[in-house]
């Protein structure tokens, strides 16, 4: 099942609206890179573990 992470679920001062979807490992990698470059987070194994807890299943659009 595809996964999604949406910055709108985690409001910040930047009012970021980026949403990332794909296979779990793709989403984690892209979200970590985005969080580091845009939001100033450090991309560490611990940070990636916390991201893993934030991703959600993508709602099926093929009902």
From TrEMBL:
Pfam families named among the record's database cross-references: DUF1059
Name of the featured protein: DUF1059 domain-containing protein
Highest taxon, organism lineage: Bacteria
